[in-house]
C-alpha cells in the first residue's frame, strides 16, 4: 500500500470519527503527496514519499519555531500536526547509529583523523547513506564532534 493510499484511508477514518484536526493534517499531507506525483507525472517511489513527509515535518517545525509564544492557538495546531505527520515518517537514526555510519565512511575514505578540509568530501559520501533516515543537522553536528 502506498503512502497516498494509507494517508487517504486514515483521513477517512478520522473523518468518520469526527476528528477534524487529524483529518485536516492528513488532508494537507495527502495534497502534498499528490502534488509531488503530479509534478513528477508518475507514481512516487517509497523514498520520494518519505521525502515529502519529512519536508512537511520540517516546514511545520519551522512554523512552530517562528511563532510568538503568546500565539498558543498556532503552537497547539503545529504541535498536533507534527504528532500526526510523525506517524508516517520513518524512524530516524539516533546519534549512536550516525556515529557508526560516520566511522564506516571514514574507513571507506581511508581517513583516520578527519579535519575541516576533509568535511566536504566526507559529507558527499555520507549524506546519501543517511538521506531520509537521519536529521541532516544531527549528522553535521556528529561529524563535527568527530573532528575535535
Strand element count? 0
- Distance linking N and C termini: 45 Å
Compute the number of helices. Answer: 7
How is the main sheet built?
none
What overall form do the CA principal axes indicate? globular
Give a short synopsis of this structure.
Helices cover 73% and strands 0% of the residues.
Description:
The protein has helices spanning 3-17, 20-40, 46-66, 72-85, 95-108, 119-130, 136-146. It is mainly alpha-helical. It has two domains: 3-85, Uncharacterised protein YqeY/AIM41, N-terminal domain (Hypothetical Protein Yqey, Chain: A, domain1, Orthogonal Bundle); 95-146, Arc Repressor Mutant, subunit A (Orthogonal Bundle). It is globular and about 60 Å long. It starts with a helix and ends with a helix. The mean pLDDT is 87.
Features:
single chain, 148 residues, mainly alpha, Hypothetical Protein Yqey, Chain: A, domain1, Arc Repressor Mutant, subunit A, 7 helices
Mind sketching the topology for me?
Layout: H1 3-17, H2 20-40, H3 46-66, H4 72-85, H5 95-108, H6 119-130, H7 136-146
Amino acid at each position: 500500500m502506498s503512502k497516498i493510499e494509507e494517508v487517504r484511508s486514515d483521513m477517512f477514518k478520522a473523518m468518520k470519527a469526527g476528528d477534524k484536526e487529524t483529518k485536516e493534517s492528513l488532508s494537507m499531507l495527502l495534497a502534498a503527496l499528490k502534488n509531488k506525483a503530479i509534478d513528477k507525472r508518475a507514481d512516487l517511489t517509497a523514498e520520494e514519499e518519505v521525502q515529502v513527509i519529512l519536508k512537511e515535518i520540517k516546514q511545520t517545525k519551522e512554523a512552530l519555531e517562528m511563532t510568538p509564544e503568546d500565539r498558543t492557538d498556532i503552537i497547539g495546531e503545529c504541535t498536533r500536526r507534527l504528532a500526526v505527520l510523525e506517524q508516517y515518517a520513518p524512524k530516524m537514526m539516533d546519534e549512536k547509529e550516525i556515529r557508526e555510519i560516520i566511522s564506516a565512511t571514514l574507513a571507506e575514505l581511508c581517513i583516520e583523523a578527519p579535519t575541516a578540509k576533509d568535511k566536504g568530501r566526507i559529507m558527499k559520501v555520507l549524506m546519501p547513506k543517511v538521506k531520509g533516515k537521519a536529521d541532516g543537522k544531527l549528522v553535521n553536528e556528529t561529524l563535527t564532534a568527530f573532528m575535535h
